[in-house]
Write a structure and sequence with these properties.
The complex is a heterodimer of chains A (225) and B (296). Chain A is built from 7 helices and 10 strands. Chain A is α/β, with parallel strands linked by helices and 225 residues long. In chain A, the strands form 2 sheets. A 6-stranded mixed beta sheet of chain A has the order 6-7-8-3-9-10, with helices on both faces. In chain A, a hairpin with a 2-residue loop joins strand 9 (205-210) and strand 10 (213-218). In chain A, helix 3 (95-104) crosses helix 4 (110-123), helix 3 packs parallel to helix 5 (139-151) and helix 4 (110-123) packs across helix 5 (139-151). The longest helix of chain A is centred in the last third of the chain and has 16 residues, at 169-184. Chain A is globular. Chain B is α+β, with helices and mostly antiparallel strands and 296 residues long. Chain B has 2 domains: 2-55 and 161-291, no CATH class; 61-151, Alpha-Beta Plaits (2-Layer Sandwich). Chain B contains 11 helices and 4 strands. In chain B, helix 2 (21-58) packs antiparallel against helix 7, helix 7 (154-196) packs across helix 11 and helix 9 runs antiparallel to helix 11 (264-291). Chain B is elongated. Chain B starts with a helix and ends in a 5-residue tail after the last helix. Classes of the chains: A alpha/beta (225), B alpha+beta (296). The A-B interface holds A 48, 50, 70-71, 74-78, 82, 88-92, 101-102, 104-107, 109, 149, 153 and B 1, 4-5, 8, 15-16, 19-20, 199-200, 202-211, 213, 295-296.
């Protein structure tokens, strides 16, 4: 599903990623671990084409993303769901509208939107909060809205960058369970985190980064600091 | 799909305006004040400009003809001048008419003066199309054998020419400066409004919105803001002028300028211009402002 070959990325003269090689199969649940600043978020940004790598190649679903023209980037991003630590919800839209927006930009009809959005909100357990604005929702609920929005296109890949970073451990764990359920439906999940307890609890593939280098890649791995 | 997207962008802009209430009110208020200032300047400027032009219109010169100049030749000379593009108007006064005028001013003198053989000359009052052309017309006729003398004050004419030119240049410069300031103020207001919502742009791009879909609502919102500000400034100004009509007449009489006009017709015409200008200004400002945040 995702093939990263010899990727390096630098900002100015400083390399944040060095010669990264990863092969992520469809249906994998990968935890990218490591302390802040090791390059986890940079790798995520490369995958959604928010940044370009300096060296190497990134293939997503068989396509070299370097050659996706600017005009098709929006379309490419609809194939990948993204979830962030700070939720990145549109503050002036309610939960329903935030999720619907992702469908509106792809030109879906009102009928389709009315049909799909309540189902996705129900999937994340927010069917009764559809009319609530982000400031009327708890952190966990906001993250659920963000996950619903990420899922609305039924993406093959879901990227979650520190999805539990702003949540208490109980709510964080609920979010992880939700991500696991999504993964069970066949969606490839890549989660950047530095939460040791979560990584150790889920016992899935762990890719550890240190100073921009992959130092460990283990299936059913644990967080070793 | 295009119509669906267009409809969504239009609807999204209206919703966003409503939900970002304070930001919308601030942007419209700043634009409203800018339009109001521009309007007041233009209305009073136009009035002042016509006052300057009317000073110029009052400037003319008179050609006095030799007493032995035959009238038919004088009339031919007048006809030639009438066809001159620089000449706006002519008024001929024959020797007899001059005597009649004098007699009206000092009754009983006509008979005596006729006895001495009418001492008045035939004359021609010339009004030129611009004060600046007065000099060249006067020069072109001064050597004509029919002409005895030309009466006009060169110094006064030159002073008026220089004065009117200077005032018009100052007015134009001020207008250009005001227009630049207005543009910069509107641009910065829209920029600031978009800057405070820059995260929305980032989020829109992340969920797969095309550049057009990201830009659209912001541009349309700025167009609405500009158009609303234009309508408000026109309506407010119309009622202010209507309410202070008497005072404006007094003011115009005091300063000897035509009454600044902002009647219904002028308000509608000016309003339409401003709506187009306001909308365009809003759209350009939003386009420029959003370029800094898009495509990152």
């Amino acid at each position: 599903m995702i093939l990263i070959q010899g990727v390096s990325k630098k900002y100015g003269n400083k390399f944040v990623l060095r010669n990264i090689n990863l092969n992520i199969a469809a249906g994998d649940f990968v935890s990218l671990i490591g302390p802040s600043g090791v390059g986890k978020s940079s790798l995520m940004r490369l995958l959604i084409k928010e940044e370009k790598c300096n060296i190497g190649k990134v293939f997503v679903d068989g396509e070299d993303i370097e050659y996706i023209p600017r005009g098709r980037v929006a379309q490419y991003r609809r194939k990948i769901g993204t979830v962030f630590q700070d939720f990145k919800l549109l503050r002036n839209k309610n939960a329903f509208e935030n999720v619907a927006f992702a469908l509106e930009v792809s030109g879906r009809s009102y009928r389709q939107i009315k049909d799909i959005v309540p189902k996705v909100l129900a999937l994340v357990g927010l069917e009764d909060k559809a009319n609530h604005f982000p400031n009327e929702l708890s952190g966990g609920e906001q993250q659920r809205v963000a996950i619903a929005r990420a899922l609305v296109h039924q993406p093959k890949i879901l990227l979650a960058d520190e999805p539990t970073g702003n949540l208490d451990s109980y709510t964080g764990w609920e979010i992880i369970q939700l991500l696991q359920r999504i993964n069970n439906f066949g969606t490839t999940v890549i989660m950047a985190t530095h939460d040791q307890n979560i990584v150790n609890a889920i016992r899935r593939r762990v890719v550890a980064l240190e100073n921009g280098i992959v130092v460990r890649d283990q299936y059913a791995g644990r967080y070793i600091s | 799909m295009l119509w669906t997207s267009l409809w969504r962008v239009l609807k999204m802009s209206l919703t966003s305006m409503w939900r970002n209430g304070w930001l919308t009110i601030t942007a419209i208020s700043v634009m409203f004040l800018v339009f109001l200032t521009m309007n007041v300047f233009i209305i009073f400027g136009t009035s002042f400009n016509s006052a300057i032009q009317s000073i110029g219109d009052k400037v003319d010169f008179t050609i006095f003809f030799k007493s032995d100049a035959p009238e038919d030749q004088i009339l031919q000379f007048r006809d030639t001048l009438t066809h001159n593009a620089l000449v706006k108007d002519t008024a001929y006064t024959s020797k007899e008419q001059a005597l009649e005028i004098y007699d009206q001013q000092k009754p009983g003198t006509k008979a005596t003066l006729q006895d001495y053989g009418n001492p008045f000359s035939a004359s021609l009052d010339i009004k030129t199309s611009t004060p600046a052309s007065l000099d060249s017309v006067a020069h072109s006729v001064e050597n004509n054998p029919l002409v005895k003398k030309i009466k006009y004050s060169k110094q006064t004419v030159d002073a008026i020419n220089r004065g009117t030119q200077l005032l018009q240049q100052v007015g134009m410069t001020l207008l250009v400066f005001l227009a630049i300031i207005a543009f910069l103020v509107v641009l910065n207001t829209v920029r600031l409004a978009i800057y405070t919502r820059r995260h929305e742009i980032e989020i829109m791009q992340l969920v797969g919105a095309t550049d057009w879909f990201v830009r659209g609502p912001f541009i349309i919102e700025a167009v609405y803001d500009g158009a609303i500000a234009a309508i408000l400034s026109t309506v407010v100004l119309y009622f202010v002028f209507a309410h202070f009509s008497t005072q404006l007449i007094d003011l115009s009489y005091l300063f000897k300028i035509p009454k600044p006009d902002f009647g219904l017709f002028a308000a509608i015409r000016s309003g339409l211009y401003q709506i187009v200008l306001g909308a365009a200004l809003g759209a350009v400002s939003a386009w420029v402002a959003i370029r800094q945040h898009i495509g990152k």
